[in-house]
Design goal:
about 160 residues, alpha+beta, Ubiquitin-like (UB roll), DNA polymerase, domain 1, 5 helices, 5 strands
Length: about 160
């Protein structure tokens, strides 16, 4: 398989790696960079467990070729913590029990992060819409929505 040089910024760090043309972004992140927070779920773009941010927008790493993000900024769940401190959103997921088993959590957090960056005070309906592509098999989503609300300080507000 032919390899090309991939230049990309991952979690704020410039990267330059030889990557085969057919390598998916999820495999590049997990296998080549060791960033295993991004989870492989359905392999078909159905569950959202592999959600990362590309240029600040949610993107499914299981259906994106690594070379499609050349020259762009990619953020994974590992990149949200600063100097070993969890982000406000990560803390809210922990404190409000939005993590459940934890498998979907990285994708949920990344989709929520994208939402809060563009809308720091979303309604419940806006949170639901932003998370519509992310599935959780453990919960009815109440704790996940409460986690996002807690992170933005809009808990208790209705849709």
């Amino acid at each position: 398989m032919r390899k090309q040089l991939l230049q990309v910024q991952v979690n704020g760090r410039a990267r330059e790696d030889a990557v085969a043309d057919n390598v998916l972004l999820i495999d590049y992140l997990r296998e080549q960079l060791g960033l295993t927070g991004t989870k492989q779920g359905c392999d078909g773009g159905e569950c959202g467990a592999c959600t990362v941010l590309v240029e600040g927008r949610p993107r499914l790493a299981c259906s994106t070729l690594a070379h499609q993000v050349a020259g762009k900024r990619v953020e994974t769940i590992e990149g949200l913590a600063t100097h070993g401190e969890l982000s406000r959103l990560q803390v809210a997921f922990h404190e409000k029990l939005g993590t459940q088993c934890g498998y979907c959590t990285p994708g949920m957090v990344m989709a929520s992060e994208a939402l809060l960056r563009r809308n720091p005070n979303p309604s419940v309906d806006e949170i639901k819409a932003a998370l519509a592509g992310n599935l959780c098999r453990c919960t009815g989503y109440v704790k996940i929505i409460e986690s996002v609300q807690a992170a933005c300080g809009c808990a208790g507000e209705s849709s």
